[in-house]
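Suppose a colleague, Dr. K., hands you the sequence of a protein chain of 294 amino acids and asks what its three-dimensional shape might be. Before reaching for any lab equipment, you can write down a predicted structure in token form. Begin with the sequence itself:
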Amino acid sequence: MSTPQAGILAPVPSFSRYLEFRAVPDMDLRPVLNSLASLSLDQEIVICIGPGLVQGLGHSIAGLRPFPSLSGPGCEIPSTQADIWCWIRGSDRGRITHTARAVSHLLQPAFRRERLVDGFKYDQGLDLTGYVDGTENPEGDAAIAAAIVEGAGAGLDGSSFVATQQWAHDLAHFEGLPEDDRDNIIGRRQSDNQELDNAPISAHVKRTAQESFSPEAFVLRRSMPWADASGEGLVFVAFGKSLDPFEAQLGRMTGQEDNVIDGLFRFSRPISGSYFWCPPVSQGRLDFTALKHA
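The predicted structure, expressed as tokens, is then:
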């Protein structure tokens, strides 16, 4: 029986390394499946594959598609679709580094690394703005229902889809705003994390209220802050049994419904965006049954 990759449902770790890889043209990609399938996985590593890789292998996964490029008044959502995404998790940065090096070596020479971002847990789960991240995250059975595919058949049950984005914050601008403005951008008070009844329609919590969509758009967020010499921000990670809930939220954030733009764009912007399918595991290793039978 296949089960979800353990790192998807596990709590957010102390540290993370996010890796994205793109296929090298004119290389035989089939050996990559064998290499990835040889890995013994635990909750410290999550591996997912993109639509281009699936297509290049001559297969398909229902619901998997490239990340959309969207725009709205004063905002731009880029698509930087990659072929493999690897999330290394843990409490020891040295161990994370060596695991990431091992995965990178395993994928050579058919894949080259396109993105490496180190994430970290801030306090008890804050964004670098100081606001709690993922307050409305589903838990327990609700998390499984939101994030994990069930009833789809062998090789699909236990799998998941994930949307990933790297957001760059302008913290100097945000911190220069009056406290009320900052609260209204998020839709919650920073002081006690209470949702504001009179928040503007552009407030982030109103734009993305999961129960306000039809059908409801629940996802399991596993985002973490990042900071390096280039800046700082948030690595946004959202797992779902489908990509539709995330895409619905993204559409509303960029004003596709009503031309109202999410307040987040006043101080932050995404600089990457990819979709991936996260195979289930069987006996501790990736289960590619869905690809073999596609």
